[in-house]
Structure formats: structure tokens, C-alpha cells
Design brief:
Subcellular location: Cytoplasm
Number of strands: 26
Largest sheet: 4 strands, mixed
Protein name: UDP-N-acetylglucosamine 1-carboxyvinyltransferase
Distance between the termini: 6 Å
CATH architecture of the largest domain: Alpha-beta prism
Family: Belongs to the EPSP synthase family. MurA subfamily.
Strand content: 25-35%
Pfam families: EPSP_synthase (PF00275)
Enzyme class: transferase
CATH superfamily of the largest domain: Enolpyruvate transferase domain
CATH class of the largest domain: Alpha Beta
CATH topology of the largest domain: UDP-n-acetylglucosamine1-carboxyvinyl-transferase, Chain
Number of domains: 2
Helix content: 25-40%
Radius of gyration: 21 Å
Length: 416
Amino acid sequence: MDKLIVEGGVPLHGRITVSGSKNAALPILMACLLAEGPVALSNVPRLRDIHTSLRLLDILGCETEFSGNEATSCVTNLSPEAPYDLVKTMRASVLCLGPLLARLGEARVALPGGCAIGARPVDLHLKGLERMGAEFELTEGYILGKSGRLKGAHITFDFPTVGGTENLLMAASLAEGETILENAAREPEVTDLANFLNAMGAKITGQGTSVLRVQGVEKLTGCSYRVMPDRIEAGTYLVAAAITGGELEVADCPFQELDAVSYKLREMGVWLEERDDHVLVRPEGRIRGVDVVTQPYPGFPTDMQAQLMALMCVADGTGSIEEKIFENRFMHVQELARLGANITLKGRMGIVRGVDQLVGAQVMASDLRASASLVLAGLAASGRTEISRIYHLDRGYEGIEDKLSGVGARIWREKE
């Protein structure tokens, strides 16, 4: 396994470019199962989860290729089984369930794995698909699904689930009649999936709102499509400029989709300016602690919670973060404490008292965004920080050490 070495204390300066969105690319790749004809995707990030998704598509009966940041897929002979060996490493694998039922009328999908940040059950996916005519059995760690042609339905989610909304959007695109999804997730990545499905011939309206309407069609065709840039990666680099006292141009930054993040950063004393092809970011004086509550989009994203906590660790005064999405997403707190952070946990709230200086230490990543918070803290700390178990980081950040090195960070990868 690899580890990252960070020698902190260097303000970052220069231009850093955001890669394509992992959380948009994964459902879009699964949606390729619906296409009759070749699909060409650009701006696809080179990440472990992307390679896993492409291997899963190969097993399910697609011919795929991946070169540079371009991926192609063409369905040849669909198979209904998504095996545990692949699904256990990546929760997004369950997104093949809706497309398989829509195309084949059957699916055998292993219950998913992924980061250990909370339960994230798939029951909302199954309840919605049952409303559309599917029947399920859970046995030996697999979801067994059967259906005829799925039928449109009026479905109201108990909670605006991103994965559930995506699975049902894909299934409804080939269902008979109209499907209405209420209390649907509004995340930009859901909108990107809907736009991709429409590019293949689907009839979806209401993107970006809590009510999505889908008129089912007989078939979807291949197309070319560019995946949106990654708003969480972009937010991470905005924090990197602030925590190091530097100034960055963050190119290909989906700034409109970062409203909640930019609002809090400005409240903390970070200067942000949107320009033609980048966002300029730098701190203005001493960073201040703030209070944050994670919420579904358009609220503050849970995927930026750990990064903002790292920034609060070196802020002036006290701030708090209340985590309302996942029940087990403060595993980075004890590792930040090893660097000298002063954080107190009270249930789902972390109270952060800023310190003058973090000090490098050996730390261990527990999940994807926790990894990013440790990199950010290491950039701000004096001395040397060693971050182990960075395979989590490789699931969500394309070449992060190369990008940060390019703007002045002293960061490199070594074998454990």
C-alpha cells in the first residue's frame, strides 16, 4: 500500500484544474447499460472507482475502453449478475440494479460496500422499484430482482436519497408510462445524470428541483457526453488555498454548485472571485470559526464536512459542525487530534477550537473525505505528516499529489 508524505507550511500559489466528477461519472457509467449503441464519455476522472465501474460493465456485457479521460461503452450481451467481488468495494455498484431491470427484467446484484461512514441502506431504491412492478428477494448477500416491463408510478421518497433518485431515474426512462419522483435529490450530479439520459433520448423534466417527471420511451440510443467537473474536489482546493495562506486559481470550478460552501468560506474570511475560466481564492487575514450543519443539496454538503473541519482547526475562535446526513462521519477527528487539533465530539456535533499551529505526525485515513482533511491539515502543519491507507483518497481524487505539487506543496507518495 502507498502512503502520502506532506511537509507543510508552504503557501500554495498557482493554477489547479478540477477533474471530472466521480459522483456524476459513476451513475452515468451505469446508465450506459440502457443504451442501444455506443456511448462516448469525456472528462471522466481516472480513479479507482471508475476502473471498478468499467470492470463491472465488462462483466455485465458491455465492451468498454478507457484512455486519457475518455471512456467508451457498447452493450453487446447483457448479463444480470453484479458479483460481490466488485460490488463490495464500491457502493455505487448498486446503481446497475435499475438499468438491469429495465433492460432484462431481472437482476442479481450483491449488497454494496464502500466507505464505512454510515448505514446508507438501499431500501428506498427497492421500495421505489417495487412501485414500478419489480419483485425482490434478499438471499445470501444478494438482491434478486424480477419484473416484466417496468411501469410508471408516482413515488415519494421518505428522504431525498441521491442513489435512490438515480436508480429510479434510470429505470423510469424505459418504463411504460409516466413516473413522478417527489422529494427527489436535487444534487448537481443527479441533474448531470438526467441530462445524460436525455442526450440518449429519455424524456425527463424537473432537473434541479425536488419533483422529477419521466415519460418512458421504448429505447435509448448511444451519444457523446461530457461529465461535469467535481464540485467536492473543487471545494477541497478552495480550502487548500485558505488553510495554507496562499492564492490559487481553481480552473473548471463548478462555482454555482458550491454556493453553500462558498458562503461559509466567505464567512470564515476567505476571499473568492469568479472569473472567466477559474475562481480566484485566498484568505483575507485570520480565518474565523463558524457554525455549519450538513444538509442535502442545496445545503452544505456532507462531503465537504471533513475539509472544512480541517480549516477550522487553525481558525481564530470556536466553530461547530453538526453532521445530519451520516451517523458515523467523524472518524477523522481522532487523526486531526494527533496533529494537535482541539476538537470535542458531542453526538453528531464536533466543536472545534482553533489552535495557532498544527504539528506533523503519522495519521491514518478512514474514508475518502477524511483522507482529504488529513492532506489539508498536513499542508498547514509544521514538519512532516505521513498519511497511510490512502487507497481511500485514490477513490475520489485524481492525481491529488501531482496537482498540489504543481502549486508549490511538498507532497509525494511512498510505499508503506
